[in-house]
Amino acid sequence: MALSQPRADYDRTLMAWLANFDAHWHEIADRYNERTRRMFRYYLSVCAGAFRARDLQLWQVVYSHRRDGRYDAPR
Length: 75
Hints:
Layout: E1 2-4, H1 10-28, H2 34-52, E2 60-62, E3 66-67, E4 70-71
Antiparallel strand pairs: 1-2, 3-4
């Protein structure tokens, strides 16, 4: 099992998602209400702020077969 932690600037990814969401809202607005839009914007913003404040972490766990005394991710 290998553990990795992303760089501390993961908030930039969340802010890019938010910008993309805002830029394309008009494409999905007829399926969702304004409350849903506000909640999703709030969620992305709060998560970005928590990463920026280093109050939140994201971990990725990768499980792989053991090969010759080491762990390799499948290619």
